[in-house]
Amino acid sequence: MKLDSKIPEGPLSEKWSKHKFNVKLVNPANKRKYDIIVVGTGLAGASAAASFGELGYNVNAFCFQDSPRRAHSIAAQGGINAAKNYQNDGDSVFRLFYDTIKGGDYRSREGNVHRLAEVSVNIIDQCVAQGVPFAREYGGLLDNRSFGGAQVSRTFYARGQTGQQLLLGAYSALSRQVANGKVKMHTREEMLDLVMIDGKARGIITRNLITGKIESHSAHAVVLATGGYGNVFYLSTNAMGSNVTAAWRAHKKGAFMANPCFTQIHPTCIPVSGDHQSKLTLMSESLRNDGRVWVPKTKEDAEKVRNGQLKATDIPEDARDYYLERKYPSFGNLVPRDVASRNAKEVCDEGRGVNKTGLAVYLDFADAIKRDGEDTIKAKYGNLFDMYEQITGENPYKMPMKIYPAVHYTMGGLWVDYNLMTNVPGLYAIGEANFSDHGANRLGASALMQGLADGYFVLPYTIGDYLSQEAYDKVSTDHEAFKTAEAEVKEKINKLLSINGTKTVDEFHKDLGHIMWEYCGMSRNEEGLKKAKAEIQKLKEDFWSNVKVIGSNEELNQSLEKASRVADFIELGELMIDDAQDRSESCGGHFREESQTPEGEAKRKDDEFSYVSAWQYNGPEKPETLNKEDLVFENVKLTQRSYK
Amino acid sequence: MSWFSSAMSSTLGKKVLMALTGLFLVTFLIVHLIGNFQLLANDDGQSFNIYAKFMTTNPVIKTTSYLLYATFIVHIIWAIILTLQNRKSRPVGYAQTASNNSTWSSRNMGILGTIILIFLVIHLRNFWYEMHWGGIPTATYDGSEYKDLFSIVDFSFNNIFYVLLYTISMIGLMFHLYHGFKSAFQTLGLNHPKYNNLIKGLGYGIAIIIPALFAAIPIIMYLN
Amino acid sequence: MKIKLKVWRQKNASDKGNFKTYDLDDISEDMSFLEMFDILNEDLVKKNEDPIHFDHDCREGICGMCSMYINGHPHGPKQTTTCQLHMRSFKDGDTITVEPWRAKSFPVVKDLVVDRSSFDRVMQSGGYVSVNTGGVPDANEIPIPKKIADEAFDAATCIGCGACVAACKNASAMLFVSAKVSQLAMLPQGQVERKSRAENMVAQMDEEGFGACTNTGACSAECPKGISLENIARMNREYLGAKASSDNL
Q1: A109, A154, A337, A442: which one is catalytic?
Q2: Rounded average pLDDT over A22-39
Q3: Subunits with at least 3 CB pairs below 8 A relative to chain B?
Q4: How far apart are CA A7 and CA A16, in angstroms?
């Protein structure tokens, strides 16, 4: 199938403004005749729902948490990029565009990314107007910092809690629309299916998580802002509830899933402490500005560290391997996320890991403390050091920190065109739930930017283009399509409840995570992927015959919620493996061992793989079809990344 | 005036009333204490009795005293209203609660207030009621006749139980003021790093010194 | 470590509920408090018993969803969220009592899960600046003194978990409400609606049935983000000033 990305013609910098003029508008008096469903209330969902409400549409917004303010956008620490050039250091829309395209390893669309850079400036204005307390300088103007190795200071931040402050801003705008009656908020309600009528998205089926009631909601358009699927790995920095269910069920109703194998693994997380571990905690990568990464030179020393015979501080300087500084003399400890992550895995695979599980490397601040003094380090990283100590019980001022990479963000997601509409008419995907702007690798401080750009400044324009051509007629939830979808959802739930096997949902989830991390994690190869595919198929079979879910549907039932999510994660996992297998090049977060330079660095193959993989569901147990959208680069020159 | 009644019926408004009446009662305590010092004048109660007559007959004082009665009543009634409302806000209690997150006095203002109220009833019955409507002996100074309240006080303070009641009640007052004084300022919105230490210090000073001096008088009279 | 857990079990909102005791052997001190519950729940499921329901999501101390009342403290003995509490804060052989938040405005849904939608309704009554998307001035148009921005930020760090209500002997929501009132009262962007915001949010807070403030300070002492009592004083000021001078007759 030919995919039409609908990128407007014309010069890059004029595409968006031209497009804004060309899209059809809905008359202000007619907006109230259209209903929009927004699923998810993170940065993208809350900002979109609020903006739709302001424009006059009727909005039904859904979240599975007890309040829209809990969405996991809240956990973002570092900041948000915007091409304001407030620091007069040479930033511009084009530079932000260029950095994002390059950072994404040339696997994203020029048109989308340029638009993102353009609207980035509006986001900051909007948030400040809402009362978001960004960091400021003594003169009262906004402060910026350089983030994730960027050459300019374009990151706006609110201490280490930028995501929280931005989300609370969007939540406040949403709350205002709830009070105005333009948005009806449905909390603790989870989307379990998409309803299609005449080939268009016309509603969703939800489960009320308190009563178990299966409900139908109809609308003229459905927006999925349901976040990423990092929890397919079981352990990730995502929230416990983050899931792919809404997006996956839409995929099964026809929406294409794009680049599912593109996952970002963040190098500076607190390592796993044991089998009980339920989630991983990220620490800002700013730590690598002053910390030095190392492991013992010999396996023997590492072994002694692991069983407690040696402490990190007992190992003399010449017995330490500062492997990033050794291999990448010019970038050193500041190599990009994927490179730092892969190297950590490599040294641990060699048996030189340093915690009980063997999966950790040191991040040492001893030199920085000696050079700048403990007070300076405390001023810069005090809250991170405290957090580390709270979780691990170790004092990082005295002992080097231990870190290990963890799954953090998924660049892949539902395929969308320039209007952020999926290939299903009337179904939109925004924020991390879509695939659009980050290519194969996301730059630091860009996730918040994209979520808010989509919700505040892109979708409110583009959704009108579709709605203006739709009739006002509402579809009754008594329509056959709703009844069929409800029945399917109920059947699936009953199936999960009736299996009554011997293995818990968490055990399946852990097994899935293990397969994914092992074979489809930081580095992937043909053989491993094949093996993973076989294992995952076995796991799926086992799940549907042996999972144990307690209780009934008609109550708050957290194990049922989890079971339904894990079932979808298993299917998604299989698709990720297919995607990783197809893409036998290394690019961004996706490292194929078969595609590397003689020095062992990632090697992109632009001739063969300069496309977006958009996977099409064909029915249960049938292989998915791969549709390719070719990526065209007219404004940037493709280069291989090098950090030597 | 609906804005006023809505303000005063809100939880914040009720608390403001508690704070204002509380602070007014503190000023009363100070005046009362100064008057009580006459008990120690060692003149067989002459100055105290003259003072007592002045306090019950001077028109300005009399008017103020009605305000004072009203203040007491409002402070007490509003405390009861708030307590009942607060109880309703947590219909099911905890099995276990920690005590190290706040001071004991702040959590027990109601109990402390009740102790003070009980004391007040006894105190009023014995002195204030007697002075106004009781048949108390008289004394004559410079040809004028005065009610000899001193003799009643003196008699009471020779009773050890009475002295104990006073002392214990004053301890109750001490804790009540310890929290109440600074709390009133917080309720009125007066919380600023520049003045917080002053308010706190003043509050602690008042909480300790006033009840201590009040209690000292019966103790001294008992020992004499 | 060996731990004895005394946990509140309640099937649903109308059930009476009671404490149940569970013995756990083999608890690692590296575990978070919630991971201990995960392990207990796995065990319960295997024994065909209903797992203990509790709210949690981000597990990094910022979403505000976790809400256990542990040994008499909201979020347990440390000034942090339940998810950031680790078993090394307890001793081998300890008995730990776990209850849901208790307040009329936070009715129990099941076990340790409570309904905090009252907080959302308070926010909807005025916890925002009424600006539509687009058409706002440049972000640097209005300079804000760093100190004001920092203080507003301190108030804005509230995670809406409800520990303040849970800790307060009156189940008062003053700290939560005042944090938002304060944040927006300090910033220039919040000035236009400053008076109506204070009036409306306090009215909604009362309407929801939260108790009055006795200024015990337990809320701030237990707040995982250390929101200051100064905010409560500021809200008192804002409210009284607004009532006395707003156009709202």
Answers
A1: A337
A2: 97
A3: C
A4: 9
